[in-house]
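Hello K.,

You asked for the raw outputs rather than the summary table, so here they are, unedited. I folded two proteins back to back in the same session to keep the settings identical. This is the first:
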Amino acid sequence: MNAFKRKLLAASVLLVFSYANAAPSNSTRPNIVLILADDLGFSDIASYGSEIQTPSLDALAASGISFTNYHTAASCAPTRAMLLTGVDSHRNGVPNIPESIPPEHQVHENYRGVLSRNAVTIASMLQSAGYHTYMAGKWHLGKARDELPYRRGFSRTITMADTGADNWEQKPYIPIYKKANWFADGEETTLPSDFYSSEFLVDKTIEFIDSNSDSQPFFAYIPFQAVHIPVQAPKEFTEKYIKTYTQGWHVLREQRQKRSKELGIIPADSDMMTMSSTNDWDSLSDEDKRFHAKRMAVYAGMVDAMDRHIGRLIAHLKATGRYDNTIFIFSSDNGSEATGGDKPRSLLSRFGLGLQGYRNDYETLGTKGSFNTIGPSFASAAASPLAYYKFYAGEGGMRVPLIIAGKPISDKPRRSNAFTYVTDITPTILELTSTTAPSEFFGGRRIEPIVGRSLVALSREQVDHVYGDSDTIGYELGGNAALFQGAYKIVKNRGPVGDGQWHLYNIVKDPGETKNLSNDMPEKMATMLEAYKQYAEENNVLEVPANFNGTHQVAINGLRDRFGKHILVFLLASIICFSFYISYRRK
């Protein structure tokens, strides 16, 4: 054999060897559909104990794995930042929603409320690995041109950049915004006249997926507006539940707890507490009961409508031959939202809504032009059988559904009560797609390391947990804080609902957080408090001001940003207008 033939043979062997050890081909790498509901409570879908009809999500649960001990941040933006990067919220630039960060914190680089360039999104990683990357929905991680998802790894996007917006029209839902900020592929855009958020976002996702006919796999991120305020739904969905909630929030909370036990979601002998913010249903007038029942019916209709449109996406993937190679991940960004109070028809509430061009009369509740919330009492039921809700570090604020399903990973229903955390989603997707995580640098920039752990082995029943009894996960948001270790959790919830003190719970046996173990296990309490202190120091967690109130801060920051130096004039004018309105109503 001459030298040329020997070199040719060696090159051929090397080529075959390199192909044999290369990453999987595009045709074998799964598509990923990451679906995120907004403010969906722990028991708001049927497979987790709800009375709401969610057949599309139930079908995913029936062929995949349902996680019953999965935790997020208790507010939207910090969850989204951790979900998309695998990096702790105090290191990725989003320790709280930007609207709620006090001025004394905003001078710190990690407290801007905007996703840091030193945190790489899963979209950027997958895009570099050959994936088409799409996003349709709420972003809330920055609205400047270079902060939008189109600049953070997503090749096609339709994005609502704010905390929320109307679901029927391009309209801001609270007065801190001058307009609803929607963007298409990084440019300001206008919504269609027949817009309804859940339908529109699925339509755009299907459009993006169909826009590419090559063999490259896709990653589609669909962060719905449902069921963030304003809670709105097509009338035909609301009508399905118009008589469902007439017995009130106490009965609903108990019904969901019972179903959760029957399904094995929580231990059969676990207890449930009554929240101090839950009002007495029986003390209400018949008219008020009727109105509150419809508030919740609209909420159920909004969940139902979201599920219906998820079903449309699944049906489309089946019809186009993509379903068998697609993995679905479904979750919520935090627990149920208690905004709105239990007196939404007060004179002050209706006056405020009127200034924004909204109404909340019974007949049109949930339709275009109406503004609806469910308030703290029904929010407690939506989080059943857990305690607390959005913003608080109780289980009702942090523990939400998580379903991972699809033929590439599962073909039978399973449940896992292993502790899992929102930072685990990015490393899970990386392993599912055979994508190598960046180490120290990405795109020539030093980056924050991923701290989450892949759930793939847990999903395939190769292990029964990914965190050991000695591992700790710290958390803080707006002064509410927690640390998880094995079956235990220490938690501090500030007022007005919490007492501002640290408590210790076994959240495996007692997910309702009814038995404070801090006096029974003082050594455990001390060890976990020391671990939290270390977490706070290592992640530059700042103490909130003593008088900090997240809701008030949103109003102050938002009005300052919108009206600048004219804010005092605006507030004075509002007070004068309201005084005239009160006088007119009295006459």
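The second followed immediately with the same parameters:
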Amino acid sequence: MITRRKFLQAGAVSALSLPLLSLIDSPAAAAGTHTGSHSLLFDAADVPRIKRTLAHPRFSPLWKTFSEADLQADKKFLTEDLRLNNHVLHLNNARMILERTSFAYAVAGDPLQLEVAKLAITKLLEYKKWDYFQEGGKQTIGLQRASEMSVAMSFACDWLKDSIEPAMLAEIERQIGEKGAPACYLTLYGLKYPDRVRGWGIDPESDYTFRFDLSRWPLILNSTNLKVIPIAGLGIAACHLRGRHPLAEQWLDMALQSAKSFAPMFHTDGSYDEGVGYWGYTALYLTLFLEVLYRKTGIDERSLINYPGGVRYALQMTMPTDHEPADAVNFSDAHGIGDISVAAWAAKKLRDPIAQYVALNVSEPKHYSGLVWFDAAVKPKQPGNDLLDVRFGTGIIVSRSGWDKDSSVLAFRSGPPANHEHADRNSIIFAAHGQRLLHDPFNAAYSHTQPRWLLRTTEAHTALLIDGKGHQYHDGKEGTNASWAFARILAYNASPGRVTLSSDATDAYQLVIPDVKKVFRSVLFLKPDVFLVLDTVEMSAGKAAVQARFQVFNDDKNGKVRTEGNEFYIDRPGVSLNGRVFSSHDCVVRAGTLALAEDLGIYPYAELESSSATAHDILTVCTAQKGEPLHGRISARREGTVWRVEGKHNAKEINVSIETAGDIPIFTVA
């Protein structure tokens, strides 16, 4: 491996002044017959199939955003509004314009698209740097923007090479070799050798307003999506510049090494710690690199992660509602499923009918690669009952009664910390009849200086507080990185019509309240509309009060909460949730809202508080109901170490006993 000093020196050499390099002894050249025989992402022979996809009802709306984009508005932005020190928004917007117009021209040949693509290239080439992060106050590192730029510029060269001037093409490739790939390489080098990093920071010339402590980012980011983006940027740029830049093989080796080292961040079942929204983004960029690598070199690493499992993970995390058809189980910063282009790729490559179902039915295609990869010849298969209940490697459990919008979905957050997480251990999300009934808030702030940072904390989740305190979470000064809070699934059983689980979050709370001895949450879900939540809290010394919160979805201002004695009701349009509370101690049930200014949103919740004691058993019996019919009357009583729960809801007889004498509660359903 070349030294760091030599790398930095060589990175400044113009690729245009170099002769075609010999590829003898390179691992890429030795890999097979694909070397140089394909374009980066698709060939001319693929265009007829792609054009058929453009007319497909599933994909035509995406193509419409390309073919009917307001090109005059694009021109105005590029010529009048673009600021060359704004990377977060302006460079990103210009880059997306380039991708959209260059792809549209490559597929449909519209000269107006070519005109705007060339204008976007001209303006992007004017940027002094392609990212707003630095190492040692000097070298640019490509955490995101330089990586995305390397991908966009490489594809633009490939798609427009016969339609733009040789001088412009040469300048693009020169800048990829100077502003793009070296920044990506330096990022991956720092992630591989964090002890050699001289300090990462935000470029003072950038107008980015937020500041974070980046001193530990070479350690933190090694297991986040911000490693995959430079992998893709470096790898695709290297594939494009092979034979025309002295460091292309070095870059390709680093990209491939880094991809292999990152792959375990996807669990063996295909799930992903940062949440399902980040799964789509992360898997997409990894797949773009692996596909380009194979097409250009013959190196086939396209089984590096579990693609069938990942596609099913996206499917099983869906939670469509009336409010948002693409809604998802949004633990962490995930808002929705995100782009599902990878499902089209998996269906095409693996002939996977479930992947094709996901490509055609889940969320929506948002990236041009979905138009490239979709193959209508693969027949979809609707998911069956075998996928209704799942315990992911992430520690998340999802159980549903079916796959349509009116089905119920109960999701439970256990497991380890992760980047983009919230302080949400043992929290619950629940939807039924097309409505979110127990909510995990959207759009939490990414900066700890903003009030909506509160939405990341335990008090904003359907979870427990002890003496008003949530479990451990960081202060946000380093960004949205992982905390130290662990929860562990102690028991899980799924059978037709029901799921039981128990999770231990003791460690997470002990980091804040050392006298905590035990924090367990156990759940029985009787599909489709009854579930029991048993919270067990014990103190090793002293007494504490326990509060359990149940959060209401109110983004559309249609969520309400009311209380009656030991009960609470969460009302959504046409649907309600009733919770009946039973406790080993005096318990108060009340309604409240999070302490945020109204212009930032109103976040109501129901809260039950068990009075101060050394040990608590709190049982909440929840029922969901559509329309006007009354909720069933389900009662509970404590007999020694056993809770007995009896009643009826929507013609379903409920007869459950919960034995609490052992370490883990045991549910028995008669």
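Residues 166-192 form the longest helix (27 residues).

Happy to rerun anything if the numbers look odd on your end.

Regards,
P.
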